[in-house]
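#structure-requests
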Amino acid sequence: MPSSVIRRFSYDEPPRRLRVTFTSGDVYDYFDVPPEVEAAFRAAFSKGRFFASDIRDRYPFERVSIAIP
């Protein structure tokens, strides 16, 4: 899953929580993400592009941790 924006992600179902770790080191949880969206994210050729168009600004989120410089 090489991406210039996203380092890794994980998905927890039943809470439907998508945890995204960015290459900056920041970690965010996105809530109420349907399993089919997670599956499409996993299958997407460009994770960053899919994230920007289909996840960011579409689901409630919370910053879990901030990268320490």
